[in-house]
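Supplementary material to the annual report.
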Amino acid sequence: MTGETSAPQADQELLRRSRSGDADALTELYERHGEGLFAYLLRLVGDASLAEEILQDTLLAIWRSERVPRVNGSVRAWLYALARRQALARLPGQRLHVVHLTESERDAPPPLGPDEIALASMETPRLAAAVGHLGPLQREVLGLAFVTELSLPELAEVLGVPIEIVKIRLATARSALALFARLDREVMA
Amino acid sequence: MSIDHAAARGVLAQYVAGTLDRVDRPSVADHLLICEVCRADAAAWRSVRAACRSAPTPAATAPSTAVLVVALSRATVGRTAARVAPVPVDRRSVPDAARFVVDLLAREARLLHTNLWAASALALLLGVVLSMTVADRGDAGMVFGLVAPVVAAVGAAMVPWPESGGAGDLVLTTRTSRQSVLLARLGLVVGYAAMVSLVCSILLTLTGAGGFRAIIGDWFGPMLLLSGLAFALSVWLGLRAGFVGVGAGGLLRVLAGSPEGSVLAGPFAGAIRAVWSTNPVTVIAAAALVFAALRWSPERSPLDSRR
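Predicted assembly:
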């Protein structure tokens, strides 16, 4: 994580050179971000060879791009957004949803229920197992926030939704995780 | 308390993940010290974080080394061109940029304190009344030329501070930069004062205080310069410094009097009167002050704190 966040300018430069056909630059960009992107894609699609193919598509898309991509925020977020687009292009069933906010969603932080409070006292292995029961969108947002460690604006950029939706998705994922963990425990008992 | 409860709750996941802005992190930490609900919330996020980081991935954790080689060969052979989704190109077109500016201004206009609008309009109207009461009708423009810049500059000094209306949340939760928010607010506050002053100038012209253009010339340049100065002082040294700047500027102008007579020595008074007028230099100086305040603002922006 250290190299990725400490040198965003180097990333910009590498991206610019990769685009103009510099194989060394693309290689370096891959060395910096390949592993993280692969881990993300693997969580997203659940199949290593498919994840590798999508990663190839991503690299190819950078290489082929004719226009200079204007990266507003971090190159990292831009790369994850691009990888996500490649993944969705491969998975025709999934579509990006444009979500409109209602006023209540915008204002009220979701309540902290008994399940969520109980989360703090649960053993990590049981919770980790519950992560596997989550839906793909929920697994994705948790992974990007806590494993890839993207910031809130980066998450919004990668997922293509407003920041408020990112927050709601994170909260929903946590509620689901708490629920699954409780159900697991009840089944065990 | 440096951040409100709702704003802190909204970013607790990022606080736990360690992805929160270095500037915002201490204020969330401060809030956690005093808020039990948020502490419980953060503890729950910590469990989620631990679970995510130790969740088993379906297979390998590193991509095959062939990925890059294959990608590069595909690039040269050009086999699967059609399958690759194109790179999203973020071109902020002119209509988009215009929409962004309009959105930002509308949002800020709602956030700014309603009292600010009423107070500055009232002060400007009082300025008109005051100008009409001067003994020599020819001096009306000069009096209004003192009042209007001072009113606008007081508003400009308040822009970076919570007194003008909460904006910390906006910066914390959207991708709008602090500079954009500050600039939008400054533009709204000074722009509004200028519009009201324009109406006042029409009133003054109708009551025979002088030519319309001359009256506008009396206040327009000084309004920009004094507002720029107040804003810069306020950003750099605090709200009080901004107000002191406004007061000092206004006082100097009063002491400089008119060519017929002034308290200060002739050349000095003349210089102050030259600065206190509408010309390209005052406008450029005002813009430079605002630019410098935004470019070299303190590490911890005034927008973050609510004291």
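The radius of gyration of chain A is 18 Å.
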